Amino acid sequence: MAEQQITQGAIEAMFCDPARAAQFPVLVMQCLHIKTLENKGPGGPGAGRYRIVLSDIRNFVQCVLATQVNHVMHEGQLQRGSIVRVRQYQAQPVKGKNIVILLDLEVITSLGTLEKIGEPKSMEFTSTEQQTTAAAATATGGTSFYGAKPEPAQESKVEVQRQLASRTGGLGGGGGGGGGTSASTIYPIEAVSPYANKWTIKARVTSKSEIRTWHKASGPGKLFSVNLLDESGEIRATGFNNEVDQFYDMLHEGSVYFISTPCKVQLAKKQFSNLPNDYELMFDRDTVIEKADDQSSVPQVRYNFCNIQELQEVEKDATVDLVGVLKETNAVDQIVSKTTQKPYDKRELVLVDDTGYSVRVTIWGKTATEFDASPESIIAFKGMRVSDFGGRSLSLLSSGTMAIDPDIPEAHKLKGWYDASGRNNTFATHSNMSSVGAATGRSDEFKTVGQIKSENLGMDQPEYFMVKGTIVHIKHENFAYPACLSENCSKKVTDMGNGTWRCEKCNITHERPQWRYILSIDVSDHTGHAWLSCFDDTARVIMGMSADELTELNASSEASFNAAFDAANCRKLVFRCRAKMDTFGEQPRVRSQVMSVGPMDYKSEGNKLAELIKQMGPTPRLPIASTIRAQALSSSTAPSLPTSPLCDITDSLQMDQLASVLLDFPPAGGLADDERYHLAVKSHIHKVDKLAVTQNFNPAAAQLLDHVHPGVNSISHLRLLIAARAANSIPQADMLAKVSIFLSTFDARQIRYAGKAFSVVLDWLVSGSLFPASVAVELLTTALLRLDPTGSVLTSHHVALAKLAFTTDNVEPALPLLEKNIVFYPGAKGLQESRPLCGLDLPPAAYITTQSGLTSQLSSSDVLQYDLLRGLCFIQRRAWSQALDALERVITYPTKDNNSCSKIMVEAHNKWILVGLLLNGKTPALPAITSPGPQKAFTALGKPYQSIGKAFEDNTAEMLNAEFASVGAQFFSEENNLNLMRLVMQHYQRWQILNLRQIYTKISLEQIRKRTQSAETAAPLATEAEMEKLVHQMIDEGMLSGVIERPADGPAYLSFLAPDEELSEAEFAQKMSSTAQRLKALEPLVKATNERLGTSRDYVRFLVGQQKKEKDGRRDYELTFLNQVEDEDLMTGVVAGF
């Protein structure tokens, strides 16, 4: 069956006959091989690229997955032998080979995975004609590009290679390191990423900025940027300082260039770029740039037009492209910046289009002064920012472009419309929008917390919203920072240790700082909770005092300090927020910042609710059981019922019977003791089980859900959820909301008795059938912590959560659970309880068991895999201390005999060594409790890592570099440790700098440069400026406690600051309070462990023996109970997995 569906001959058509290939809208092929490409970028684990081999039975070809289809790998859909549909691709020859970039791919899961079909042969070039045809192949089904001029004859491969080869001594900088063979790979811009090693792009400069300069305390600087375009997309490139002198005059707008590595690829800074690309380029002194002979094969410009009428739907500060007819041109005007006092030229234009709307456009600088377009010209703008001033207006960004009377279809269409009828039309404006939300200038929509998360606000662009919520927690730690006292400066100042504070920006010293808030608050509503960030203005409203006043309280009275936070808690307020994608530790995340905050207007809210009730009035809802019964008894005729499948009295009475059973637990008066509660809940479950098998239960579940409270009648609500989903009687959006509310509000005491049904709902989250991964991870974390607030018992759901969080790159929502320490395992000895499951003082390990259904049976591999995944999650966040602890749990896992060792343990051990080097600058020592079998395996299989650790500690950078080279990058790549290994190489020099603090309190940057070496180059850094940049990075990341000082009459030097252990009295008190809270949280775990050990004969014998030795003065303090216990007794309840 699969063989008949495959598009035979498709690969040959791609390269030799594109016209024939275009006849196949979708190509079906088989995947023969999958390989992860070497990850050299900062993306971290799981962020790599993938190469696969596809076959059409006749031929096979190498392919590269574009980043937008990497999800088929991350989700485990694409496997060796899978049958796939290729919907969009780009075929091109690279270094004599045929390569296909897959832009849209779908796995046909129904066909499964098969053995290789047929005997396909490699698709190679057979003639110069085929080469030329291959070069001309374009992305089938792809996006069209405006302004691309047809090329009469494509460059042959020989010509391209000749141009690339000539670049070794061409116009690039340095030694022309990007030329030759390494630069002969022509990449589309879409494929350029931090994970590609050597590449060349052929792109047109669509925009070139002016040179911008700055003057800071660290010295002057300058930069420029260009926007680059090819058939696949756009990317921004920036040059700093020396690269400005090197490349600025070389690059011209509208010209096509070859640009080759070395050229740094990094995450795009969206605040400076309007291009739809996640990455941007940074020119290097050795970057190779050469003008292409052929200037016509690359598109002129790429537009994504929005018409003028649609601007009212576009959010403020969004970036758009627009084409319109020039209706009015105003004279050049000049404004003066309030902050810099610099003058700026501007000109205002009025554009119209065929939607009947007009808009005001502002252009700036040289574009404004040199503007000479005549009225009624067609103008296309790329990169304009949307403002809500006067309703809607536009401003051309510095990175934007303007084309007058462009040769594109949209321009011709507008010209025809304007000449035919538009010239005499009247045009509407967006000015009526300005009255909406007068206080803020925008109409921000109210959102619930659940909507904020489910709609992924802020993921693509900044979004504003209003939310009504209650503050449930305010973080006490780092609530404020010391800021500069100068006007219009709020930069952080540095404590110089002599009673003064220095601002690097203003280059002045103050006797004291002004403390400013950086508050994190947890806001909750009925749909969930979310963390919001508050800066000084909004935090003052919340706290009711300035940050200076709160800091004084912190230093003088802990009770008053805590009381200030308690007073701010539990207040219901209205927050106006902005959700925006931010980058922290090279990991993108959405941050919601409070822009303004105010009290709830209860009168207005009451009126809104009353209006909603009126609107809902004409649509009667199903009465609850007691209402139906009262109507039936008080009337001689049947009560008026909703028009629905249950509209007759018989069906209503059936609904009454269902509701009466579902709502009878818990009883209104409550239950006096645990034993009565236990009997009542068991009886209730029995009744609900009998109801669930009746024919009326599933059809009625959707209506009954609205009347069974998820937090009060949790067992009933849970069974109704499962029934409603089985009947498919609730729209997807409503089901999502109901599941979210249930998992955030359920009664954990009741759910102890409904573990199997509860596990079914949790499995929905893991399967991805209901929620996107980011929401599923957060809900799963919330549910598990609600069930067990201590997070001390490992369950099968923990393992699934860790796997989902890591593989989908949604680690942050899972951290509240992943950071908990596992103490117990289901079924462990000594945890069985005779008391009822509902006991409020019952330890979690007593009710989270396989018998209760709240977890499946765990194997040894599950336990190891969970801690390994925890370690990988912490590695991804560069939380080295937590990662080391998690990996250490894996390598110290007890084994059955002296010869067994899991492969997972070996993998964890190797990562553990590298993490130890990053955290402590030395190889960690194996804990004494490590079993003999794993110790032997680690010694035998971890030699490459042990040799790296030894070279890191004992030898020079040259020796470490040589050790890495002798092992080989390929080895570390195959073990998925290449990124960690590269971080170790980078941190070698950092630890050299840190070790200098043992000798010096102050040392010049030039001396640091001479005394330390980079393990990557086995040589010192080239300049003092590079060393200063490295030291600044270490200080910013918190790795180094120090400050760089620049005296007027001497060289710059680094001062190592006093260690953190020299705490002030207030800081010491705060630390002690935090320690006391942690000890209090450990109290129930210690109590449960003591109870468990108290029933162990082995432990009692151990204590008796230790007491006898202590009387005789022979006690061995290094001998612990753990050393004397048989390995297999340690993990009872866990099935052996290796």
Automatic annotation (TrEMBL):
Protein localization: Nucleus
Sorted UniProt keywords: DNA replication, DNA-binding, Metal-binding, Nucleus, Zinc, Zinc-finger
Any Gene Ontology CC annotation: DNA replication factor A complex
GO molecular function, one term: single-stranded DNA binding
GO biological process: DNA recombination; DNA repair; DNA replication; telomere maintenance via telomerase
Signal peptide: none
Main location: nucleus
Domain (PCI): residue spans on this chain: 879-1058
Domain of life: Eukaryota
Coiled coil: none
Family statement drawn from the similarity comment of this UniProt entry: Belongs to the replication factor A protein 1 family.
PANTHER family named among the record's database cross-references: OS03G0429900 PROTEIN
Its biological purpose: As part of the replication protein A (RPA/RP-A), a single-stranded DNA-binding heterotrimeric complex, may play an essential role in DNA replication, recombination and repair. Binds and stabilizes single-stranded DNA intermediates, preventing complementary DNA reannealing and recruiting different proteins involved in DNA metabolism.
Subunit structure: Component of the heterotrimeric canonical replication protein A complex (RPA).
Protein name per UniProt: Replication protein A subunit
Naturally occurring in which organism (per UniProt): Chaetomidium leptoderma
